[in-house]
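Review session, final week

We close the course with one last complete record, chosen because it touches almost every idea we covered. It is Sodium:proton antiporter, a protein from Taibaiella soli with 742 residues. Go through it on your own first, then we will talk.
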Amino acid sequence: MNHLPHLIKDLALLLIIAGITTLLFKRLKQPVVLGYLLAGLLVSPNVTLFPNITDIENIRVWADIGVIFLLFTLGLEFSFKKLMRIGGPAFITAVIEISAMLGIGFLVGKALGWPLMDCIFLGGIISIASTTIILRSFDELGVKNKRFAGLVFGVLIVEDLVAVVLLVLLSTIAVSRQFAGMEMLESVLKLFFFLMLWFVAGIFFIPSLLLRAQKYLTGETLLIIAIGLCLTMVLLASLAGFSPALGAFIMGSIFAETIQAERIEHLMKPVKDLFGAIFFVSVGMLIDPHILLDFAGPILLISVILVVGKTLHVTIGALIAGQPLKTSIYAGMSMGQIGEFSFIIATLGITLDVTSKFLYPIAVAVSVLTTFSTPYMIKLAGPLYEKVNVALPGKWKRTLNRYSSSAASISIVSDWKQLIRSFFIHMIFFTILIIGILILCVNYLQPWMLHHMKNPATAVAVSALVCLVILFPFLGALVIRKIQPESEIKLWGNKRYRGPLLLLRFVRIGLALLLLGILLLSFFPLYPAMAGEVLLLVLAIIFSRKIQAFYIRLENSFFFNFNHREIQEAKASRSELAPWDAHIAQFTLPPASPVSGQTLEEVGLREKMGVNIAMIKRGDNYTLKTPARDEKLYPGDRLFVIGTDDQLEQFRKFIEPESSTIEKPETQELVLKKVVVKETSFMDGTTIRESGIREKTNGLVVGLERDGHRILNPDSFMVLKQGDVLWIVGDEKLIAAAREQQ
């Protein structure tokens, strides 16, 4: 055994202890993260009950890899599209809560007499809630489909992005050891510049690459490509002066917009679990029991302040954002904990050697205490709401209700405001993109050309030409791309807006000329650059149509990549059911379900709850679309059920009284089509069952429109008549054939 490297011995010890503690915490129904922390404590030099890790530095390298993969998978779940869709309430709530907790953490540290950097990092540590712990608690309590859960998920998305920004800001503060306003502003601007540049470039190329190579993407190949691109972005982030974790998060968010996102997430899970376990164990290794005893008072104080502070400020933020009192209190009671991002922030302080040794174990101890309290806090949300609702004066409650209703109704934006907002987004986006490409050409392309070409003048000219070719479509788009054309046409009809509209056009032209001048001056002296700009302006006018057509192709390609996953999911989930407030949800039938072994006819779901089972997935390869009435249900079946929120909740309780797993529907090959019952139709005068529509279309009648009334999941004994509009989920070709046979 002496010839065996220390790393292998350490990993064996680390993983076996982690495995045992994980089993223990699973049995106790507690988060496995706590088991990893305990395992780290047991194998650390601070505890002598077990053999200790000997090569701590190598374990830390593996832990750093764990942080990278943890942030990569968080990015896969993040998605910038989700950030754009969360809306005002979640954003306002998150900003109020994070700002308050940053300030509270700093003041608590000051009150305890801690050094400045400890106070700053404490604010960052207690400001970010744990996505993992909240999701686990929601799963266990069966509240993922409640209204307040949607608000919490939105706040968590904003918090993830803020946590990434905090990593950059704290690194900047740590290096300067002071609040340097200009340095912080520069870091933030640099961060958003690279975020936009990397994201746009990633969306242009990565989805297209995956789409073209789709038939070659086995699980092994896709995993290698995903990890390779992740580590490449980690390298780019490091070269740009950012945290490696930021690069991993960005690449994950780029993959989140591809149709391979779920598959990559599935493939990455064992890799993330392995390296993530090592990371959390390494966190536990840094816990010193003596420090915990010495700082027991501050740990309890910070834990109480964190729970009360986050609960209070999330609730206040949600109320200010226009959410009802009940939703606000439930959301506030769900977010009183810290987790993985807090560990990463605490680790940053140790890595940069700017925080005291006691801060890290205190952060871990606070996380452990608040993790245990989270499920109980969520359970207490109901009783707390009842008490607050009773205690509030009637006038206050009416004021809150009016405010919530008015906030929800504010959705109309004037054409002018909409145009101005789109104008500035357009200008900022293209300016950053053009400057980013220019910086790459000047700093990397031109030196490479000078190194490989004998004539310096030729090298500079070729570099400038390549840069111009790349930038010309974007410069053209900056000037000629239409922004909110419908709003602009309406406004042009009003003479008072014609002057401002012309001014906006001149501003776009002026900015494009300024950027073009900067580009040319980066390669040539003043007078040649001026001559070149005039020449290029003439060429742009002559070839404006071709430039515009080329840019439109690029833009269409970008938005196709950006929206491809959403389009595929829309086809699967069939959002046309929205008029009935119905949607498809996925349930996994548990082993102890009372309906296991029964046929669909025996269960009578449509008659009892008004829901339909559109598809059953059994195992990895067996799929039943629109299952027949004599089909039996078995444990482990994944049921794709159509119904409203209330119906689905009733169904969940019916198949699994205590808890259930409700997920977003996977990709399905079903379509929703409408069929109108004609005068000569074979369906006229028959019941839905007698019409044989199920057999003819291999589908289900999930909706019926009659005389302006809509019926979701109509009874199979309902008699059809001329003019009825049937909504059928089933095989597209068979539905079309049935429509033709009428």
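Two points worth writing down before the exam:
Strands lie at 582-588, 612-618, 622-625, 638-644, 662-663, 671-676, 700-706, 709-712, 725-730.
The two ends are 80 Å apart (CA to CA).
Good luck, everyone.
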